[in-house]
Amino acid sequence: EKELPRLLNLLELLICFLLLLDIFISYFFTLNNYKMPSDVEDLDTDYDDFGVEPESMRKIFIGGLDYSTTDGMLESYFEQWGEIVDVVVMKNPFTKKSRGFGFITYSHSSMVDEAMANRPHKIGGRVVESKRAVPRDEMARATSNALNVKKLFVGGLKEHEELDLQDYFSQFGKNNLVNQALRVLLILQQIISLHSRATSNAL
């Protein structure tokens, strides 16, 4: 038990070393205009972990459908602009009758562009309303907001440590990328935890 505080201090020194190493590496990459691999992956918001675009970017809303229009009819018409991975005509859950609108989901957003470029569309003898499930401006705004997050929560700190934390994170600049700070956040929390445990054991 007497060796525990000493062990914790050694671990703390190791973590501090890793923290300084991380700062040095970040500075080196910034100085040489390189991007860390993790930065490239984190900033790629157009694709999920499997390289597939978000469904919202590949989906089309189809309104004004004839009530006799089926999923198959909808798919048969829209597949001329690309591979369809999902098609559904929305129905009343009680009567099971069509509600007059549906959705088409393509395998790629470029197919949505093609379908939109060939409007108007006529299905079952009537012109239908077709539009992106999520408008382009909303998608762009959502992506922009995701890339411009400027706040980061750091818990478990005492009041007098606020200036120290501010001095540390100022190295990333006023418009810092959150993912850079996240790389060292875990290490900071470990240091704080080790301080608390070492103090309590010493008492």
UniProtKB/TrEMBL annotation:
What the entry lists under PROSITE patterns is as follows:
RRM (PS50102)
Annotated RRM domain residues: 58-135
Single GO molecular function: mRNA 3'-UTR binding
Coiled-coil blocks: none
Q: Which residues cross the membrane?
A: 7-29
Instruction: Extract one GO BP annotation from the record.
Output: mRNA splicing, via spliceosome
Q: Name one Pfam family in it.
A: RRM_1
A GO CC term attached to the entry: chromosomal region
Query: What InterPro entries does the record point to?
Result: Nucleotide-bd_a/b_plait_sf (IPR012677), RBD_domain_sf (IPR035979), RRM_dom (IPR000504)
Known SUPFAM superfamilies for this protein?
A: RNA-binding domain, RBD
Keywords noted in UniProt: Membrane, Repeat, RNA-binding, Transmembrane, Transmembrane helix
The entry's protein name is RRM domain-containing protein
The upper taxonomy is: Eukaryota, Metazoa, Ecdysozoa, Arthropoda, Hexapoda
